[in-house]
Amino acid sequence: MDPTPQAIRAALTAPDPEPLFAEARAERFRSKGNGVFLRGLIELSNRCLRDCLYCGMRRSNPHPRRYALSDDDVLASARLARDLGFGTVVLQAGENAALWTRQRVSTLVRRIRSETGQRVTLSLGERAEADTAAWREAGAERYLLRFETSDLSLFRAIHPGAPAEGPHPRIGMLRRLRAQGYEIGSGIMLGIPGQTLDSVVRDLLLFRELHLDMIGLGPYLADPQTPLGADPAPSEVPVSVGFTCRCYALARLLCPWANIPSTTALSTLDPAEGRIRGLSSGANVFMPNLTPDACRADYRIYPGKICAVAPQADSMEALRADFAALGLVQCEG
Ligand code: SAH
């Protein structure tokens, strides 16, 4: 893959995406083998202090029932991840430093490490350097923070409270996390109103420049309970499975080393085929939802979120059948 804006733009708009998908599949086998990593996603809480214009968890949305898991709930989900042979749990939550204090998260990370042996990835939003330093010290190894778009004026428009001046706050935080010794994950939404194709080209090149270890990409799904979703404006970037998979393929070719999940948002857009299409265009990770059943529907960042793969034996079977159809196998790590 020629890492130039012209070549990337051409791949995003070519009439037939199949050669791109085939090249990404070949690269995936070359660089990552035939394994699929499973990460257990544990959604700690939807009590968010931010007001992002696109997100159903935003503070001003009166509709969702708000919840927060107890530490013991989180440990029970992490034990389930261990029993299912996953290897890693991802702790994600609405941004809330009062609820997820430095001390509490440090203790949780230590307990998960010692009681379940699972590795820990954190996704708790924009947090102080001293917090993430303490969590690294406690044994967290990876941090996920999507920069959502590298277009600073669009980023500011959809994130009330983002600094009006200066560089992209999330890109700065990713660099600090890297310096603290984290593996870093980031990514974007595709099809945000006002997003341009050229900005997506720049986002893809930025993944490579940041040397991201993990890349999460999903379609933007309009939520009528949010200001952006209630008043949809056009986007040059399509909200579609095909376009999302082109971006997976380009991320794979530009960053062959990266772990790339087939995301829940993609499966929500196409419940029957989304997962398998993601995995056949370069993705090598899948993140089953291990949030306790009683809370799972409340972590509603967009409507219709499929609570992909409840961890019962039968849905694990469905997952393995998809892997087998693509010549892939579940792989611990
Ligand atoms: N508070 C954490 C987790 C946010 S939710 C953080 O800020 O990192 C995780 C991701 O969901 C976000 O990074 C965003 O890319 C995605 N998301 C939120 N609202 C969405 C929507 N309406 N459609 C698609 N993806 C959305």
What would your notes on this structure say?
This protein is of the alpha/beta class and 333 residues long. The protein is 42% helix and 14% strand. It contains 14 helices and nine strands. It has helices at residues 5-13, 18-32, 71-83, 102-116, 129-138, 152-158, 169-179, 197-209, 227-230, 241-254, 264-269, 274-279, 293-296, 313-325, and strands at 35-45, 88-93, 119-123, 142-144, 183-190, 214-219, 261-262, 285-286, 329-331. Helix 1 (5-13) crosses helix 8 (197-209), helix 4 packs parallel to helix 5 and helix 8 (197-209) packs parallel to helix 10 (241-254). The longest helix is centred in the first third of the chain and has 15 residues, at 18-32. It starts with a helix and ends with a strand. Bound molecules: S-adenosyl-L-homocysteine. S-adenosyl-L-homocysteine binds at residues 54-55, 92, 94-95, 123, 125, 145-146, 148, 189, 218, 220-221, 223, 265, 301-302.
N- and C-termini, Cα separation: 28 Å
Summarize model confidence as the mean pLDDT. 95
The name CATH uses for the topology is TIM Barrel
**Class inferred from helices and paired strands:** alpha/beta
Work out the count of structural domains. Answer: 1
The major beta sheet can be summarized as: 9 strands, parallel
What fraction, in percent, of the residue positions are helical?
40-55%
